[in-house]
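Bit of a strange request maybe. I'm writing a small parser for structure token strings and I need a real example to test against, not something I typed by hand. Could someone generate the tokens for this chain?
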Amino acid sequence: MNKSIRDKVRELWKLCFNDSEAFIEMYFQMRYNSDINIAIESGEEVIAALQMLPYPMTLFGNVIQTAYISGACTHPDYRNRGAMRELLTQAFSQMYRRDKALTTLIPAEPWLFDYYARMGYATVFYYGKRTFRISTNEAENASETPDLKLLNENAFYKSKIITTYDEAAYQYLNQKLHQRPSCIQHTSTDFHVILSDLQLGNGRIFTLTYRQKIVALAVAYPDTDPFTLQIGELLADNSEAEQRLLNRICRETKATTLNITTPPSREEAYPLGMARIIHPKTILQLYASTHPGIEMNIALTDEQLSANNGYYYLNNGRCMFSQQRLPGPHRSFSIAELTKRILTTEHPYMSLMLN
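Reply from user aminoacidic:
Good idea to test on real output. This should exercise your parser:
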């Protein structure tokens, strides 16, 4: 019996990535579909494939549509022959036709930052780190029974561990992520995937409520050290709610240290992900409308999407595109340079991706 493209892509995934069978099963049940997959075949074999996962993103006061590159892989026998370059070029064309404003990705290896830069991507997503350690008194209380712990807490505060879909938890996550001005968003479908991924890795979501209203949420993953947890996302209404939730996580898990991933700061920023503009006119119009005082004449070159080549004129909050150069000085940009120029100052952030 002939294998489907889905089965062939799955076999290639297993060959190229060191993922568990449980994760692969989850991914191909919950994430993969033929509409977002692109593959190159040789005979009866898929030799390269990737998926374009849809994610909304807040940017310049709007919500735009993006495509996140996932599962990009090439069969070992066909590497260094340009298969992935061709596949990405095809993907960009599909994204362009589907009105995706941006494409994003997280390189699996450090050397891939340079590779994707040659395809028009720029490193614009960064993250920060902070460490939370439970105080001595809190550590001593960690051995108390749950009932005694609750007696010592403010009766209005309650903590909860989320392992299955919870609408209130999702709405809180969604609300807080939308408050970030430049951030990849997660739909309720994404939240189901996040929960499934957490279950595979023995991770959990913790919430803190005050008078039955969620005031803080944390996504926690195990660490190799049994007394340490990794916090992939931390959201709270205020510092008091955040501190209470972190202390509760430590008490309930016996952890003494929480390594927290945060949005970057001026003092600390580590490279995480890359972006590439797919529709320059869309992005530049949003940029111009939020920076009406900027006047700029741009000569843009896009080696993979020739439809983007041309001249863009920003003036009085508007962006005009022309294939003919108008009089006056112009600034020349490659698509990667333009992506970095427009997005870097917005400090975009992504979290809870399948990376």
